[in-house]
Amino acid sequence: MTYISNVISLFFFFFRVHLQLAMLTFNNTTSSSSSFFLTAFPGLELAHVWISIPVCGLYTIALLGNSIILFAIIIERNLHKPMYYFLSMLSVVDLGLTITTLPTVLGVLWFHAREISIKACQIQMFFVHSFSFLESSVLVAMAFDRYIAICSPLKYATFLTDTMSFVIGLIICIRQMVFMFPSIMAVNSVSFQGGQELSHPFCFHPDMIKFTYTNPWISSFWGMFLQLYLNGTDLLFILFSYILILRTVLSIVAPQKQQKALSTCVCHICAVTIFYVPMITLSLAHRLSSSTPRVICSILANMYLLLPPVLNPIIYSLKTKVIRRTIYQLLQFKGSRNYSIRSLRERWDRRKQFSST
Fold it and tell me: Domain named G-protein coupled receptors family 1 profile: which ranges (predicted)?
């Protein structure tokens, strides 16, 4: 529990420092008096109230699901292992991504609050991409964990200790700061045209750079390079890890052991798929095709935002027996506690009625 608390504290300290740096940097922007206009679903403005119902449901699932996963890992000692440490990091990142976009998405759908200042838009854009790059890094750490567990099982307990897991989390944070701080400076040096309409209910870099006074191709290629370098190298490392894992699994003679080894990777493969596919598709739709319908971009944006935070806790809860059993015990404990409280209240009421008579 102490290790997980340290990891969570490290992540929140990292984001607090990043927020302070972002605020200090963006306070100097010359375009702070201008605004952008957010868009949820173009052409469906009259149905925003009805669309908000499933969107709120998905946000609720994301918040509750990741919080339950995080809480279960903290209180259950059997889950204090590197695999679940990295899963707790993934839940923290998914919570951060959900909370970052929740105010503007619901603001547009519920209150038609479309206007956002360029300064606030820059800060939200920074955190959206920070959490996105962090999730990519955590998925790499989870792939490394699966590689060690399957390809070198005898070294797993001695190599991936609590200290090593903490060091990996620290490296992820340092890597994020090294690459994101120059991006803050680069975005701060760009002047944006106010009064423009964005394609999403949140601020996304490929969407914003179309409305700069300078040549947008410079910022576009810098953003594309950063995404290809960080997410691209992460994805290549994940694919290379699974090539080695697959080679090791195929060398196992017993089919049952092959199936057991591959079953431990199913959740991670699903998490990688639901994260990278919407993100790459949305980025390419913005950068490579100016004629992409806005509705398509809107659907891809919501998939990019909601699929990983919503599906990750569901997948790991359904496919991981230990997590499923822990969540069931938590719910059972809560139900029995509520029942005992109700029974005590009923006894107290009966005693009061008896004493009054």
Answer: 65-316
Residue type, 113: A
Q: Where are the beta strands (DSSP E) in 114-253?
A: 115-117, 196-197
Q: How many CB atoms lie within 10 A of CB 60?
A: 12
Q: How far apart are the first and last CA of the chain?
A: 52
pLDDT at residue 99, as a whole number: 92
Measuring CA to CA, which residue among 349, 12, 347, 29 is closest to residue 184?
29
Cα 123 to Cα 118: distance, rounded to the nearest angstrom: 9
User: Alpha carbon of 69 to those of 74, 125, 147, 221, 322: distances in Å?
Assistant: 9, 27, 23, 37, 11
The encoded tokens of residue 73 equal 């890992």
CA gap 202, 213 in Å, rounded: 21
The whole-model pTM stands at 0.83
- pLDDT beyond 50 at 22: no
Closest among 205, 208, 212 to 230, alpha carbons compared? 205
The percent helix, strand, coil of the chain (3-state, each to 5) is: 80, 5, 15
Task: State the number of CA atoms in the 13 A half-sphere of 155 facing the CB.
Answer: 10
